[in-house]
Amino acid sequence: MRSRRNERGEGQLGCIVGLILLAGTLFVAYKIIPVKVAAADLRREVIDEARSAGRHSDARIRSSIMLKAEELQIPLNEDDLKINRRNNSIRIDAEYTQPIDLLGYIYESKYHLSAENPIF
What is the β-pairing status of strands 105-118 and 81-86? Predict the structure, then answer.
């Protein structure tokens, strides 16, 4: 029978690969999560403005959404924000692309935010 005294059982390569994958995942999460949170905040603003459309003009709705986008550092242009009133409803659409720099690779995250509500 063979003696196993000389075997160490060290698997350093697997550990290093695992740590590299973990670091990469944490880096990507660090870059993407704030962008997703900002998009959710802007979506909430669009929904809130659609709900209060009966009390606000289109100009006020547009300025409020654009101000929130600027505050959140979201690249939303005036042309990308559409406000449509029909009979007794309003629809607000906002489309933009947020570039995310991932160490030399620019990931383009596309967003289409929309809200439609009746006007009271």
Answer: unpaired
Condensed to tens digits (0 to 9), the pLDDT of residues 77-115 reads: 999 999 999 989 999 999 999 999 998 899 999 999 999
Distance CA 54, CA 87 (A): 12
pTM: 0.82
CA 25 to chain centre: 17
Separation in Å, CA 26 to CA 31, 102, 120: 9, 12, 46
Domain ranges in the chain are 14-118
The pair of structure tokens assigned to 46 is 């669009």
Beta carbons of 61 and 81 less than 8 angstroms apart:
no
